Amino acid sequence: MVRYVIKRVLLMLLTFFIIISACFLLIRLLPNVPAQQFGKDMSLVLQRRVRQGLVDSAGNPIPLMSQYWHFISRTLIGGDWGVSESLYIGQDCMQIFVSKLPSTILLNLYSMIFAVPLGLALGIYAALKKNKWQDHVISTGVMIFVSVPSYVYAFLVQYLLCFKFKLFPLVMNSGTKYFTWSMFHSMLPAVLSLSFGSIAGFARYTRAELTEVLTSEYLLLARTKGLTKAQTTSRHALRNAMVVIFPMIIGEFIGIIGGSLIIENIFVVPGVGPLYINSITALDYNFFMLLSAFYTIIGLASGILIDLSYGFIDPRIRIGSKANGKY
To answer: 311 burial class (0-12, 13-18, 19+ CB within 10 angstroms)?
Structure first.
């Protein structure tokens, strides 16, 4: 297990390094925003670019490989991602990023807390009512919600719940009082918009896995030994179905962070999503590199967590690995 984890972590770091290097080289092939556009801040911008190893003292670009080495030593080694040149002129990128991260994390946590139990419950109910009208209704709804993009739900939620019925505010409250009822109430429209697709995904996978397990021969053997249908379902069927479903929950949480980019913009959530999109439109390269690194490491780390979760959930995977002498 330890050897496997070390191998996967090293591979993850190598992949991360390659992706970030590609992003940097592609960004550096684009022209910098002329320092003259910053007016009275022009000299400060030039000084920052000199410290970042992008230009020489005269303002002329230095060779690309020299810029690349400065970037690696300053960011990946030194942890200094520079300052904003467009969005938050002169402010440290890492500090702005950290200040906006709680909104994104809370939005996704609330969405998963709402989506996981409801999606699993619908999937289990559909599997137990296979080929009955309840199963057909749930399956039809799942196909609809899986097919429709999340931003469509966002517009419907805004129009129906926020505008027509006035149950929620149109946008999220500003400020940092995240654990107040007012803030939670203002986040609910965005949470609902993110949850619909996740609920449908969990219900679909749960129904598919549980339906297959319920038709297995060992469940028939359990019934012949005197166990009731409820006992065989809870003790055997659900445990085996969760081998596939639980890693999907981990992957869904990671994936939903990336999917919340548009939702955060629609509901004006002061999170990482709008910051990422605005950094692209404003050509704020330091912010773009920092946020690209964040989303890249999140995606790569989720792959490792999903693989490791299989070993903890299914004992057969651990037994097989020990028998082969490796994992």
So the answer is: middle
Closest CA to 310 of 245, 218, 216: 245
For the stretch 186-200, pLDDT in tens is 999 999 998 898 899
> If you search the block for the tokens 């006035």, which residue do you land on?
166
61 forms beta bridges with: 55
Give the pLDDT of residue 256. 60
Q: Which fold has domain 100-313?
A: MetI-like fold (1.10.3720)
